[in-house]
Please model this.
Amino acid sequence: MTDRITIPRPDDWHLHLRDGAVLEAVLADTARHFGRAIVMPNLVPPVTSGAAADAYRARILAALPAGSDFTPLMTLYLTEATSADDVRSAANTGIVHAVKLYPAGATTNSEAGVRDIETVYPVLEAMSEIGLPLLVHGEVVDSGVDIFDREAVFLDRVLAPLRARFADLKIVLEHVTTKDGVDFVQCAGPNTAGTITPHHLMINRNALFNKGLRPHFYCLPVAKREHHRLALVEAATGGGEQFFLGTDSAPHPDKDKETACGCAGIYVAPVTMTCLAQVFDDAGKISNLEKFVSLNGPGFYGLPVNDATLTLERCVDPAIFPVSISAGADTITLFDPGVPLHWMVAD
Ligand code: DOR
Ligand code: ZN
Model:
């Protein structure tokens, strides 16, 4: 039985760091375990230019704990007003590593996103030439489609035609939540990847309604049925190069989640490595953890694997985490899968 593993320092290929007091509160939790993270641009206002990405990056670097070597990888928020020149000049800064497609209205701060995908085709053409990946929130915005089907319908209506039209464009289907998404990525060839979150590997949709409404398990895309979770576990632990970690750690103050209309997002960063070690160990695949968290992501993005390492150890007593952290006057609740976790990151 493996009790201790040392892997190249992991990266997080999908992260929400926010700004201001929340950024100050959450950044250390990611910087502690991860070498780099793809930072989501859905601030208010969204990060739509290279200059805005550069300014946000400076705020992140200023909030880092002293001595941290964490590197934020910035992204641009795609709007229908984004031009091919905008993405070219953003890519030239060297700090922008991807462009994010939010279907308008699909999720938190997505109103400035894209309504008609064809309006951004010239931008996608330019990205394809540059080799700049497109990160996709894969859900249709259609109240006529059941919320649990919105990912699968997106694959048919939007992503399949996009994939066929822009064969050279690197596309990441983010936070895959369905077997349909897993199958799509696996069949789409090496220019397509999928990120998977720790929480979608650990909970199914029952967790949202377990003896009451559980707002801290609510995120978008929402967790699906158990057979979808099992497909995600197989994809993540299987070692295939097209799947890698994107935590989608999405902190919201508790007051905004524990309310009549609570927002979507799960704060998972601090517990991510412990949860993943447990999932991979339970699947008998702990030896594939480094592919998922440390090797496959850099491979897809054409970046070097981190030189630094991270060690995880099995622990007899279950790992203990705080229920929440403080952010200014607010608290932010951590993801708690509700099962004992017998792995910890070593100091
Ligand atoms: O649950 C989510 N929260 N899904 C998203 O797509 C956005 C994120 C957020 O920004 O809070
Ligand atoms: Zn996200």
User: Anything to note?
Assistant: The first strand starts at residue 4 and ends at 8. The pocket of zinc ion (ligand 2) is lined by residues 14, 16, 40, 248, 250 (CB under 6 Å).
